[in-house]
Here is the input.
Amino acid sequence: MAKVQAKPIKTDEHVFVCGRTGTGKSFLVENYLATYPRVVKQDEKGDALRLMRDGKNPWPQVAPDKLAVVTSLESLHNAFSEGIRTHFIYCANFEEINPEAHNEFYKMCYRLEDITVWVDELFAVSPNPHVIPEYLQAIYTRGRTRNVSAWGLTQRPKGISGMPLSQATHVFGFDLRKPEDRKYMYDTTGAPEFMENPGKYNFWYWTDEMDNAIKARIALSEPKVVPERG
Here is the structure.
């Protein structure tokens, strides 16, 4: 495994991260996005609330006074408006776990500008290849003009809309359980390495400028890359 220095990911670039549970997807993303100027995580599973009940910081790399955890779109809007915090986690209450509320969330982010949206599980908002919220689509197709980007994570690349992967300029591929998902990654990127799993806690790293993916792993002892605004 070669030691490489990945180029900085600008705040207006879309990123796709795939891999089964426990491979390191969220760990990589929370470390990288902790350096970004403004980020909101869409946490459909409510992991942040469980951690807070246990007395833990749900985003350890972000100082508590810079982090807001909210459960409604109204409280998220208020947290944005305060202008105090830089990182937000939206753990939707049950009434807002539906397609209409999903679209309102992306609409709020799109109109806000200058923000990175972390979609913790794309399958929750794109349950098949033919469905994707209108304003998430707007973020992927026109977000760069507003400095709005999406980091989309999923366990099943083949089962969701192809837009998050096709619009991504950076791709991180962890171990995938199903061969059809690995083949889908290869077919879309053209990088044959995606046909094989990289191994526990490793990942394939690919950009739209590369023919082949590189096997790598996150190295927290190295200086973080500070993103540039595109």
Q: What stands out?
A: The chain has one domain: 15-216. Strands lie at 15-18, 39-42, 67-70, 87-90, 115-119, 148-154, 170-173, 203-207, 214-216.
